[in-house]
Amino acid sequence: MDKALEAYVANATYADVPPSIVEDVSTGAVPLVALVRAMGAYLTSEEDAYRARAVGLLSHVVQHLCASSPSHTHAQLTRNVMRTLTEFFSEKLTDAVAVGDALARRMNDATLVPASASHDVQKSEELRAMKAEQMLYDCLQALLALSSVGYEGDHATTRDAFGGEEARTVSRALFGLSLKLYPQPLRMVVCKILDSLVARQRQALRAMRTSAEAPDGSAFIQGYTKLVAGEKDPRNLLVLFGLARVLLLEWPMAPAEAEAMYNVLYCYFPISFRPLPDDPYGIAPDDLKRALRACLAASPALATHGIPILLEKLGASGGAAKLDTLQTWQACLPVYGAAAAAAHADDVWSYLKLDILQPTDDASSDEAQRTLTVLLRVLYTDAPVEGLAETMLREALQEMREPSKSLAKLSVKIAQSFVQACARTSTYATEHMLRQLLMQWSAAEAPEEAVATLSLLTSLLDILATTYADDASRTYAGDQQPLHAFHDELLAAYTSSTACACEAGLCGLVRLLECPALLPRDECTYAVQRLQSMLLDEDEMVRAVALQGLERVLAVHKQVVEQTTLPFLLTQLPHTLQGPPRHVQTALSALARLCTPPDLFDALVVRIFSLLSAIGRGPADAAHTGYACALLATLQVALERKIEQGHTDVARYAASIPPRLLTWLTREDHVAAAVPVVQQASDMLLLLVPHLPAAKAQTWLDTMWAEMAWPQGPTCPLGAADTRTRNLLAPYAAILVAVTREITLPASAWIAPLLTWLQVVDSDPASAALQTRSASFLLCALANKWATPDEEALQAYWQTLPTLPVPQRKVGLAAWLWLARGWAACGTTFGTAMFTRVLSDMLEDARLGSLAASALHVLAENDEVMTRAHGFRLRILYKQRLLDTLVDTLVDAYHTKRENEAARTTCLIAIATVLPALPDASLRGRLEALLPLLVHTLSIDDARARTSAAKALHLAVTQWPADRSVAEMDAATQALQAHVEDQASTLVRRLLANSTPGAATPPSTRIASLHVLSTLATQLPLDVLLPMKRDVIHALGQRDQGVDDPRRAVRSAAVDCRDVWYRLQQAETT
């Protein structure tokens, strides 16, 4: 060991402490005392370097021993050894300072590093400075390790733990340091030592007094404050603020000690720290603000010196400093106490009044209101409301005498502070405010003045309600029911015609109804009647507010709403329409939102089915058909709300409503046979059936299939020839799409009859669309949930498709693709093969060509049908993988079929058709390759493809932000921008052609093209755009197109587009 010591200390052979020495001491092979004796000559050597390295070695050994167990104990660290080591390292601090000073003088030619330097530069300077202070750093690290001996956390686990005498020794040694002279790492170690001492040895440190008469801990406080004064590093400050808060909370503070703590804390207020851009420590300004605020609000002893500076900072004009000051007032006032608050209350009010009534920003105004609340709470929780509070409220009420002025609305915040402060101030302010405002309302001559007064009254009611909801210690009854004394006046005001015709009045009436025990049953009924009568008002805003109010009243007066509002709304629904319905839509909208509770929903179901039966006997005109659809939609919306709210009775309705609905649809009523009605009923079944338990669903379906001899019985949609029965496939398809796959079905045997059935296309376009859509969904559900592909039969079906007439061919292609999608989604290989067959044949057979390409829209639509909630089996990312393959195949085919223009057009249609289904991330990666194809697609004779191409182009031209330079873009974005610029002239010409009404340019295409034109004008360079500016502006101003388009939505898009291009002229001039 002697040789190792000599090699390390004297010869400096090793850069680090030899592990053999540490290991020998740790295992007990060499006693710690023996190591100290062996190093005696080095520890007392006159050579600074020897002493420094020897102290460093001993420090390293001590740290290793302390870290050897969770309680930081070791057999070598006995009580006497620990005391000796503590005294040794404490005494060595003075020697270490001298050694460091001498070394620093030899290194004093270093360049001064400013505080604004980068993190790397500052870190380099810290390392340089630490070399000079290494001995001091080692002593401090040893003391930090020793202070934790015998402790797990802050709890001692042994009698030989680091004790109070050692803590006082270390403290005295630390107080002799001039901390601000040293680099941050060393200062951080000192902060950690202080934190450890205060956390574990507070009682011992309290014995440190400046004199016999001085309070406990006075010497420690004085030493601590001198030591840490001037600290600026945020890492150290977070530790020191936490330590200071403990001292302020647990130690008595005499005036001298309080002033000392004030000096080292309030010098940082308010925090103005801003982290450097490359700051790796992640300390935010808010972290420091919260830590400092906790210190300032820790002891009332700081009030004498703290309040004046807090008052001074209240005069700040705004911003973060003002918010910090107001939040600090809120934290400090309850701690500093009523006496301190009262002494400065007038000054505080003068500042807060300005922030509330003349706010510079909303955030400061809100914080000022909260501060006023705290001030009132501190002053009047245990004292009568008089003096300053009377002045505050009097000034607020004076502003409210002119309720239409902005100051009246702002003065409500003062009333809000009174209400939120405590029960005393709340009762006082409520009584005076109600008395004055009710008198103003009754004396108001102009309706505008009455409405403005009601708005102030409603604000007070809102404040009361939110206060009782947010503060668990406050209740309306506990505040002595402040509204009861004004019961009659409030009810009269809020049920007046003026109040019921404005938003503030209706909201106030709802607040009265929500107030506990304010209105008896008969008055509740009367108030609800007044509220519900406004559902029929001509003003849409009034109707909306009244309906929202009834929803809230339903939560507190359900029986009143059930017995009053529900009959009122149901009477607005006639059994037959004799003329244009006036209030039917409003009544149905209200019923859908109010009738979600079980009792009310039961009544709604009974009434709606009664009305459906009645109107079914009437004519099947547009009015009665629309009425039936509205009734079904109302029931569906109510069910959706029940499902969202998690009602447990949904399963019961899932079992009862579908059979009733199917029975009504199969009656000989003309209205029930209308296509929109059948579709609406099918949508409701799609919503309800997933909530039907599998066992009940199996029983119900088995009975239904047997009764109808499904799939080709005479009463079955697949076996019937008449349009009405064929349309009924829609509800049955909805049931099978939505039902769980746990049930059993002979699904494979149903696919062939369905495909055959689809070859008969109904002459009525609406019926044909309904039948095709329903059969397609059903085929997809059968394939995905139950059926296995009959490859031979399907191949034979595919061979017949090109020979069918065009209408049947389109339907057959869609059916084929829906089957393919159903099987591909669950991972069946044949499903993918079906898509491959479509791609290969449509490029070779002109009879399929564009029809098959357009049929690929199956992949881009109706994702809401194929969901796991409906029992579908969906592989993760199946659709994205399939679409990626399809697009890549189509792009390759487009480039290889150079001499086959028909095939290339088919590829363009197919690509444009599936693009809307591609995720944005996948599409963005292909934009550069797709750009020429998209420009070409804008001129083909297919409206869906043109629209899709325009939308993809819009995504392309928004790929790069207009405010970024080329150097800031990645290579792919630069290439895309270059391609767009190269084709800008052709692109603009074709977009203008697509913004003109025509057979291939429906409104959706025109709007999409105009959006691309608008974006081009903001994204492309000015020199590229200017040659086209005149043509664009001229085309958009032509008759019957652009700003003169027959469709309003197109005109709006054209106006915006032309405005963007007009601005180019101003940019050119500039």
TrEMBL record:
GO biological process: DNA repair; iron-sulfur cluster assembly; protein maturation
UniProt keyword list: DNA damage, DNA repair, Nucleus, Repeat
Signal sequence, renumbered to the chain: none
Main location: nucleus
Gene Ontology cellular component terms for the protein in this record: cytosolic [4Fe-4S] assembly targeting complex; nucleus
Subcellular location: Nucleus
Domain MMS19 N-terminal intervals: 36-358
Domain called MMS19 C-terminal: residue spans: 588-1017
Domain of life: Eukaryota
Pfam families named in the record: MMS19_C (PF12460), MMS19_N (PF14500)
Role of this protein: Key component of the cytosolic iron-sulfur protein assembly (CIA) complex, a multiprotein complex that mediates the incorporation of iron-sulfur cluster into apoproteins specifically involved in DNA metabolism and genomic integrity. In the CIA complex, MMS19 acts as an adapter between early-acting CIA components and a subset of cellular target iron-sulfur proteins.
Family classification: Belongs to the MET18/MMS19 family.
Identification of the protein by name: MMS19 nucleotide excision repair protein
